[in-house]
Amino acid sequence: MHQSSKPTSVPRWLRNEKKGSLMDLTFHNITLPSEPGQAFDLGVHGGKIVEMKAAGTLEQGDKALHLNGRIVLPGFVETHIHLDKSCILDRCQMNGGLQEAIAEVVGLKAAFTEEDVAFRAAKTLRKCVLKGTTQMRTHVEVDPVVGLRGFEGVKQAIAEFAWAIDVEICVFPQDGLLNNPGTDELMVAALKDGAGSVGAAPYTDTNPHGQIDRVFEMARDFDVDIDMHLDFGSDATSLDVDYVCRKADEYGWGGRVAVGHVTKFANMSAHRLTALSRRLADAGVAVTVLPSTDLFLMHRDHSENLSVPRGVTPIHLMAAEGVNCSLSTNNVLNPFTPFGDCSLIRMANLYANIAQIGRREDMAGCLDMVSSRSAKLLNLKDYGIQQGAPADLVVIDARDATMAVAELAQPMYGFKRGKPVFTHALPELHSH
Predict the structure, then answer these.
(1) Are 299 and 98 a contacting pair, CB within 8 Å?
(2) C-alpha to C-alpha distance for 156 and 168, rounded to whole angstroms
(3) Span 310-343, pLDDT tens digits
(4) What is the rounded distance in angstroms from the CA atom of residue 72 to the CA atom of residue 40?
(5) Rounded to 5°, angle at Cα 353 from 323 and 87
(6) Which of these ranges, 13-17, 158-162, 394-398, has the smallest mean pLDDT?
(7) Has this prediction a pTM greater than 0.85?
(8) Residue 203: other Cβ atoms inside 10 A
């Protein structure tokens, strides 16, 4: 298994402090994104947040961090990533395009072993942890080619990193469900064995609505949330999301359904996007956009001029209409996305560039789309900075949310249940 999965030593700043305080750890003079312009002190004991007071009023704990107004978050939340097929770039031809990427992975995954998947997933999880991610939903595909090997390998990696990050598996049929005999049984087996949500990719099925129907049935049978790859393409004439909204209403699954990619939305008129956004908000269907993948795969057939359309849906406009929206990584170092350092703050910055966001509040909203909004999409009940919440905390080198996104602020420290997870030393400038 990956050799760097456990912390090697206690960081220097956590040593040789006073003992006997009522708190294990305290943070002094911090900024919370939800309370801009105010400064706080935070106290942690027994892995939970036990005190939150105005800056300068909390006694130091056994260990203390003085942060000079820097932002503290309850960690970044990755809503859509594929650990099972990450880090296979060295095995790929990279011909480009969605269908080519799907076909290339189909050809590779027959040779996947549990050990291979576990090793690559652990490499990717390590990156995510070091970039400040504390919660994750990973999409894992099953079918007769790969069986449950990807699922079992990812479970191994999740167990290895359980000290640092909480990960839920969303099992889904990447290569079709109704048209791919044996896949249904494998999805049910994975749900019985702990998969926490169920996904879909209707555009790969001969009967897209039939696949959506079956996935809603599975969600009801196992009482899990739904997270679909949906409306992935460029022609917005026909959308499957309308049917998903109807099913969410029919099943009473509002607040428990998310759809990802939705690149077709990027080609809609402003009026039509507004109407769709209001429908999604009413149905309780959340939206995830995956900027890096969607930029890389979309509009490869565009030949009118050298400026290729972006193909990334403007979800900040959808959020303004009441839709819960998140930004996420999707793929890392594979044919769908041959890039990736697993930094969600980089994804927020990338999206802000693509969507031409300049207003401070909209840029700050991009930080919410990799943290608090993402936590809401995953229905995390104890996410947040408040008394009694787990001390899953990340310090970033910024003093307001807008500049965190604008400057790609670096995560400095990470904690899981009050225990140190990582330290990133800030660069030093040596003057002469």
Answers:
(1) no
(2) 13
(3) 789 999 999 999 999 999 999 999 999 999 999 9
(4) 10
(5) 85
(6) 13-17
(7) yes
(8) 17
Mind listing the domains of the chain with CATH numbers? 12-74+384-423 (2.30.40.10), 76-377 (3.20.20.140)
Question: What residues have CB less than 8 Å from 425, skipping those under 6 apart?
Answer: none
Q: CA 80, CA 82: separation in Å to the nearest integer?
A: 7
Write down the residue that tokens 């932002």 correspond to: 71
Residue 82 structure tokens: 């594929």
| pLDDT confidence of residue 231 | 97
- End-to-end alpha-carbon separation of the chain, Å? 45
3 state SS for the chain: CCCCCCCCCCCHHHCCCCCCCCCCEEEEEEECCCCCCCCEEEEEECCEEEEEEECCCCCCCCEEEECCCCEEECCEEEEEECCCCCCCHHHCCCCCCHHHHHHHHHHHHCCCCHHHHHHHHHHHHHHHHHCCEEEEEEEEECECCCECHHHHHHHHHHHHCCCCCEEEEEEECCCCCCCCCCHHHHHHHHHHCCCCEEEECHHHCCCHHHHHHHHHHHHHHHCCEEEEEECCCCCCCCCCHHHHHHHHHHHCCCCCEEEEECHHHHHCCHHHHHHHHHHHHHHCEEEEECHHHHHHHCCCCCCCCCCCCCCCCCHHHHHCCCCCEEECCECCCECCECCCCCCHHHHHHHHHHHCCCCCHHHHHHHHHCCCHHHHHHCCCCCCCCCCCCECCEEEECCCCHHHHHHCCCCEEEEEECCEEEEECCCCCCCCC
Report the distance separating Cα 259 and Cα 185, nearest Å.
Answer: 23
Q: Which amino acid is at 273?
A: L
Structure tokens at 310: 């972006």
- Higher model confidence: residue 303 or residue 269? 269
Of 189, 153, 145, 159, the C-alpha closest to 171 is 189
d(CA 133, CA 328): 11
Burial 31-70 (b: 16+ CB within 10 A, else e): bbbeeeeebbbbbbbebbbbbbeebeebebbbbbbebeeb
Mean per-residue pLDDT, 245-259? 98
Backbone torsions φ then ψ of 330, nearest 5 degrees: 70, -100
Contacts of 112 (CB under 8 A, 6+ apart): 84, 146, 149, 150, 153
pLDDT in tens, 42-95: 999 999 999 999 999 999 999 999 999 999 999 999 999 999 999 999 998 877
Distance CA 81, CA 139 (A): 6
